[in-house]
Amino acid sequence: MTEVILKTTLPLPAEVPTAVRSAAVEALGLRLQEPRPEGFPLLFTSTMRLLEPAVGFLHEHAVLRACTPDTLRTYTETLVNWFDFLEGRGIDWCEADVSDLVSYRDGMLKRPSAHTGRAFSLVTVNHRVRGVIRFYVWALRHGWLRESSLASVDPDVTAMRQPWAGSRRRYWEPSERNMFVLRQFESLPRPLRSEQARELLATLPSPYDLMARWQLYTGLRVSELLRLEVRDVMLKLSQSEDALYRSIDVVRKGRKAGYVIASRSLLEETDGFISQERRGWSRRAARKRAAASRPELFITRRGSPVCKNTYQHAIRRAGVACGFRATSHLLRATFGCWLLARLERLEKQGEAINPLLIVKILMGHEHIDTTDRYLRAIAIDVHVLSRVLDSLLGEART
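Predicted structure:
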């Protein structure tokens, strides 16, 4: 199995044995060009041999291109999964060919994930296949390989993700895919009903209930939600008292600047969380573990920042308890559908607005085609359709 060791800081000379203390002093005095940051993943084989090409690939994206931590984590997971597959079959990475990539792809379709226990989605399968091809294209370009059948399949792997302008297809055309990428159908969001949202919020414990409210009322992504800090909210609360809504600057996906509109009731509820629960949890953590105060808005009862996986698991468990499927992304999609439906009604009443453009800006979408999915989702009203189907069934029986 491939081992991932995260880079740490060098120890101080006083923290190492006397025999190597001089080496520790010398190491601290070295000046490194393009140093890898703390937490950078180093990949080793099961025999603890450094996978230099993989580390070089991650170094270029993390250090030279300054990709986000989420992007680095995704590339790392893809490479670890691929090298595990090759090592389990005794195949050297530089000798892998087309048949190996096909077996790798088909294995993800047949077997569930060892990490989650659930089947891989087509999005994940295609994403990992593209990641493997991207790695081999990079290795060929940088001289790690002389030739590879995987690198010559489709050098421009990013082109496979670009739809034709103005199209509304539910899958990519064959000319836009290589032979390894599976046909991927577009799924429309199925927003929560009002009573489902209320039941879900009532089931969630603190602070996950407040986090879910932020997603439902502002449409924030999970990564954007976890980047919120206390000062972002307190600054808005200290402003004029008569405003019902306030804009809050956020860092969007890909480090893009953006903003969301938060209601005063949501900010007041957040202020109550900060002054009561959050303050109590922070003081307890400082008392027990001498932990420093965290700037993040959402922390756990132990005083540490809320982890993305922990929050998503809490949403999923609460949905199961309520009797329906719930995810963190569904909360964001529900906000988009609710907002778009109300804007559509205002437009029909004569308001000079562009509903799709407003939702695109507030949700931080890069392309309007992404927002258009919500327009098609709200066009399918389940309750209206059920009444229509019931009437058709009644006519058929008579």
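Summary: The radius of gyration is 25 Å.
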